[in-house]
Amino acid sequence: MTTGWDDDDLPEWTDDQFRRAAVYRGGKLVRPAQGTLTKPGRPKSADPKQQVTLRLDSIVLEKFRAMGPRWQSRINAELRKALGL
Q: Residue 7 falls within a domain, yes or no?
């Protein structure tokens, strides 16, 4: 099978790309990749958000979604404001 790549065409990986690459042992993922080959990805947050299941009134959800992208972040901001955080 040919890939259309010549060994001379393959770019050399940098040390940074190797550090971010996924690590497999025996076909089992040991460490997932961080970012992509060209971008390091987002920095780890000191206080990461947690995914939860939450039931909201349909009108509340509709109104927040109508505000456009980042509606979930706006819900979080409103909850923080209500709690005085």
A: no
Which run of H or of E encompasses 25? Answer: strand 23-25
Residue 1: is its pLDDT beyond 60? Answer: no
Residues 58 and 81 in one domain: yes
Look up residue 68 and give its amino acid.
Answer: G
Domain containing 28: what range?
13-41
Q: What are phi and psi of 72, to 5 degrees?
A: -65, -40
Residue 58 burial (10 A CB sphere; 0-12, 13-18, 19+): exposed
pTM of the model: 0.50
**Structure confidence by residue, pLDDT tens digits, 40-69:** 667 778 888 898 999 999 999 999 999 999
Overall number of domains in the chain = 2
